[in-house]
Specification:
mainly alpha, two-stranded antiparallel ribbon, 2 strands, about 65% helix, globular
Length: about 325
């Protein structure tokens, strides 16, 4: 890369830390300020933050790989979680419950939803264990993808006997931890807002360049990864690769990592119902926190926590 590219990256990284320092005083006002931004953040800001939080480099690389191999059909695989089916259910049903509960954490939400008896204790324990397992898996997933990308993008060499992807992941973790610890939820939202603007601008630019400068030929080759780490070249045609109708069957080799998509429409239906069921269960973790933090209008009723009616056991 050119020194200008490195300068842009440096300005971006410094900007993230500056935002953390800027919001530190507001976050230090109290625990409600640190974890929920004083419940004063507008819905559009939290929505932009949710977009930025759910658009990561690991998922982007996976989606690009799916589209590269499957064509437009690769977008259908994103029913596994990337489409808004789950968010629509949260917005219409669960989001309003989260918003009016006036709780701070997901553990409190489970108590509010199921009561303070054995049902509530069991729900709280199950959610805690599930959240812990899911968080470890997600952090591992994000660090693996970010480490590989940053190491390749910045040409990081191996150091101290550790691979480049380790140092790439460590750098990103250190940056995120710095502004998050300093400014709490305020820092997360404001940095996400900045990142969402950069992401949107990059998407528009990349799409424009791809459509205007790189026409797709009638026939071309794609490389499919195999389970042993090698790649196999397959021929593709434009008509099949750009079809908006997902194919019912694929013809991937049994040794390919994409063999799970051979029964393509069956896989898509499975992802569809999986996403719907997840949405009916409500938001969890970092997404539920955004519902807890959103600013409430007078029309919806600002209910103090100590004035709430205990939920009935069902």
């Amino acid at each position: 890369m050119h020194y200008i590219d490195y300068s842009i990256i440096a300005v971006y990284l410094i900007g993230m830390v500056v935002v953390g320092l800027w919001m530190q005083r507001k976050a230090a006002a109290g625990i409600d300020s640190y974890f929920l931004g004083d419940r004063s953040l507008p819905w559009w800001m939290l929505g932009a933050s949710g977009m930025a939080s759910n658009l990561d480099i690991t998922g982007t690389m996976i989606n690009i790989a799916l589209v590269f191999v499957l064509g437009v059909g690769g977008f259908f695989v994103e029913i596994r979680g990337g489409v808004v089916l789950m968010m629509a259910i949260l917005m219409i049903f669960m989001g309003k419950w989260n918003r009016r509960s006036q709780v701070m954490t997901f553990a409190e939400w489970m108590r509010f939803r199921f009561g303070k008896g054995r049902q509530g204790d069991a729900a709280r324990l199950i959610s805690a264990v599930g959240t812990l397992v899911l968080t470890v898996a997600m952090v591992t997933y994000f660090c693996t993808g970010a480490g590989k990308f940053i190491a390749e993008f910045l040409s990081i060499p191996p150091m101290l006997g550790l691979p480049p992807r380790f140092w790439g992941a460590l750098g990103m973790i250190s940056l995120a931890m710095t502004y998050t610890v300093m400014s709490g939820f305020y820092g997360v939202i404001w940095t996400d807002l900045l990142q969402s603007g950069l992401i949107l601008a990059a998407i528009i630019y990349v799409c424009f360049v791809a459509v205007t400068r790189y026409p797709l030929p009638e026939a071309f080759s794609i490389s499919v990864p195999m389970r042993d780490g090698t790649f196999r070249t397959l021929e593709a045609v434009r008509s099949a690769w750009t079809s908006l109708v997902p194919p019912s069957m694929m013809q991937f080799d049994p040794d390919s990592g994409y063999v799970v998509f051979n029964l393509f429409r069956v896989a898509i239906v499975f992802y569809f119902f999986k996403t719907m069921i997840e949405g009916l269960g409500g938001g969890t973790g970092y997404m539920a926190q955004r519902y807890f933090a959103i600013k409430q209008s007078a029309a919806l009723g600002q209910v103090r926590k100590d004035e709430q009616v205990e939920p009935r056991s069902q």
